[in-house]
Design goal:
Layout (H helix, E strand, L loop, with lengths): L1 H34 L29 H22 L7 H29 L6 H25 L4 H10 L1 H18 L3 H7 L1 H7 L2 H17 L4 H23 L4 H26 L4 H7 L9 H22 L2 H11 L1
Helix pairs in contact: 1-2, 1-4, 2-3, 2-4, 3-4, 3-9, 3-10, 4-6, 5-6, 6-9, 9-10, 10-11, 10-13, 11-12, 11-13
């Protein structure tokens, strides 16, 4: 009884300590990256980004609402998790819950950073580029916290950590994504860009999409049967990849292209979910397909992707009408 009574307080104290450590690390990393004008940790679409911009400001000295929103929004999940830990609301296994939550948020923020480039073009909003670096840095620090919390949960026994990574496929995939993210982070400073060369640097940072694919697969394997969120995220990633292919070929994206992307992403999501359950759980894949026809009684991931991408298409049409491209270019030049 004496030993059992001490286990829960010790776990609670360790979870709170770990929460403080990872929250401080994330916030410090975001602050230092945002304040640094010479370091551009852009774990997103490899396009040139305005350099040497003051913290939370544009070149003209005005406060950048885009930078401010990205910075504050990136900090909120860490602060929320810290609040849960301090109030002992992380469940029976607080370290495991923190590990899962930081991993989930790293994938979400990575996706948001990947959305910046298509959003700039579709919504004629060039200033969105100012959000990309902060979102990429946030994803990087959340995934570092995710890994460090896993190491803490394994009592810092690195041999056990290495063995688990080698034996469990989903951990192997997640660790591979982490290694690539570290490589991109290390090579994202202005000095490394000059050493590598802009063209080679751009090719290297296209690995961001590989990271996203690995992250989604890791996410799905970790969730096992409850793959609702990772499945619709896979569909959204498919939309981003399809968009990149089509935009590279046609340059000027029009309504038929966008409608085609919506349909393709939704069908991909249906197929991915059916194959996942059919191959890994033995569930008849036809039953999964039939479940997608039960809308609105059942909201399958494919419907989430369909509505999300359709909303993007409609919002893009409204933006094209409200803010023509020429006006958007003039806004960007004014910001510079």
């Amino acid at each position: 009884m004496g030993r059992a009574s001490t286990v829960k307080p010790l776990c609670a104290r360790s979870s709170r300590a770990a929460s403080r450590v990872f929250t401080a690390a994330i916030l410090t990393g975001l602050w230092s990256a945002a304040c640094s004008g010479r370091a551009r940790h852009s774990l997103a679409w490899p396009e040139p980004e305005p350099a040497d911009l003051p913290f939370l400001r544009e070149k003209n000295g005005a406060i950048s609402p885009h930078k401010l929103i990205a910075f504050v929004g990136s900090c909120l999940p860490a602060l929320y998790l810290l609040w849960l830990a301090l109030n002992r609301n992380l469940g029976a296994q607080p370290l495991v819950e923190l590990t899962h939550q930081t991993g989930d948020w790293s994938v979400r923020l990575l996706f948001l950073s990947l959305c910046i480039t298509p959003a700039r073009r579709l919504f004629n909003a060039p200033k969105l580029i100012f959000m990309r670096r902060t979102l990429g840095v946030a994803a990087f620090f959340y995934v570092l916290a995710h890994f460090l919390l896993y190491v803490i949960d394994q009592n810092f026994v690195l041999g056990t950590v290495a063995r688990e990574i080698a034996l469990r496929l989903y951990l192997t995939i997640g660790f591979a994504a982490l290694v690539i993210m570290i490589a991109l982070g290390v090579t994202s400073t202005d000095g490394m860009i000059r050493r590598i060369g802009g063209q080679r640097w751009s090719k290297l940072h296209k690995l961001t999409y590989l990271i996203a694919i690995l992250a989604v697969v890791h996410f799905m394997m970790q969730k096992k049967l409850n793959i609702y969120e990772p499945t619709w995220m896979a569909g959204c990633l498919a939309w981003l990849l399809f968009y990149r292919v089509v935009q590279k070929r046609v340059h000027d994206m029009r309504l038929p292209h966008l409608i085609g992307l919506v349909i393709a992403a939704a069908l991909f999501t249906v197929a991915a979910e059916a194959l996942w359950y059919g191959l890994l759980t033995g569930v008849n894949w036809q039953r999964v397909l039939q479940a997608n026809l039960m809308f609105p009684d059942v909201m399958r991931p494919a419907w989430v992707v369909l509505f999300a991408t359709s909303g993007i298409t409609l919002a893009s049409l409204a933006a094209q009408w409200l803010w023509p491209k020429q006006a958007a270019r003039e806004k960007l030049r004014a910001a510079e």
